[in-house]
Amino acid sequence: MGEPPFFARKGVPPSGCPLERNMTGMKPISRQYKAIFYIILSAFCFAVMNLCVRMSGDIPAFQKSFFRNLVAVFFAAIVLLRNKSGFRWQKGNLKFLLLRATAGTVGIVCNFYALGHIPLSDASILNKMSPFFVILFSFFLLKERLTIWQGTAVGLAFVGALFVIKPSFQNVAVVPSAIGLLGGMAAGFAYTMVRILGQRHENGSLIVFFFSAFSCLSMLPFLIFDFHPMTWQQVLILLGAGLAATGGQFSITAAYFHAPAREISVYDYSQIIFATLLGVIFLGELPDLYSVIGYVIIIAMAVLMFLYNNNKPPFRHKKSEQ
């Protein structure tokens, strides 16, 4: 599951970013191309993570989540130690860290559960509903303005999600699909908390570490009382999922270091293309017509939001045309 650093949306790297020291003095166009490369790389990494989770077999979602975050804990801790920034959060930020960690953990578990029951591409697109939930949560929690264009895009994105879920009594996958959508909603809430923490100048690496450690600790009771034995192949696959997730996290951080989100965020939806291809190649999964229609609608809304955020036609204000 991808975690966009909203604290870097204006092109300012988060505190503690491991790439901060080595990526300065570059031409704007070069920076944008590098940002696009990094965000597409992160999309590929998260698609690989989802594939590994799917291929790990019949293991409970909480167990998969534990191993996925265990790798991230160590990497984030190494970054904090190298930067000598410590493991203490700033005053007043604990409640937001807890909300971010709780929602993020719920989002991962829901996403992993969906990955075990519906096609890889379906689970990926439902998880990519999170940016639209961010818009809603930002409106209700941060009192950010919700324009007609944004509201319309959110509404149509939900229509696209319904095409993917295909709600009916005959569809046995409707419950896993709904849980996948719930995971996207939880991720959207988590990203909103990240945005608040960014505004409060919290250390970016600390946010990653706190979330990953919290998620591992919250999974421990389930792991102890309902542990499912794994083969060494399953352990390696889940560790591979953790490595892919970590690579995706650092890649997306590098992407938003080089360019603001409004210029590159739409490229994150390349994950759907990677997920579909990986599903076809490794799992023999082909999305049905309704799912494809849903993909098109959701991605189209993401493109429209991209154009809107960049103030391009057909959204250009009259004053800018004069």
Tell me what you see in this structure.
By secondary structure, this protein is mainly alpha-helical. The protein has one domain. The protein is built from 13 helices and no strands. The protein has helices spanning 28-55, 61-83, 94-115, 120-127, 130-141, 148-165, 174-199, 204-225, 232-258, 261-264, 270-283, 289-309, 318-321. Helix 1 (28-55) packs antiparallel against helix 9 (232-258), helix 1 (28-55) runs parallel beside helix 11 and helix 6 (148-165) runs antiparallel to helix 12. It is globular. 51% of the residues are buried.
Instruction: Indicate the structural class.
Output: mainly alpha
Q: What is Rg?
A: 19 Å
Helix content: over 70%
Instruction: Provide the low-confidence segments as ranges.
Output: 1-28, 317-322
How would you summarize the topology of this molecule?
Blueprint: H1 28-55, H2 61-83, H3 94-115, H4 120-127, H5 130-141, H6 148-165, H7 174-199, H8 204-225, H9 232-258, H10 261-264, H11 270-283, H12 289-309, H13 318-321
Helix pairs in contact: 1-9, 1-11, 2-3, 2-8, 2-9, 3-4, 3-7, 3-8, 4-7, 4-11, 5-6, 5-7, 6-12
Outline of the structure:
By secondary structure, the chain is an all-alpha fold. It has helices at 28-55, 61-83, 94-115, 120-127, 130-141, 148-165, 174-199, 204-225, 232-258, 261-264, 270-283, 289-309, 318-321.
List keywords for this structure.
single chain, 322 residues, globular, mainly alpha, disordered N terminus
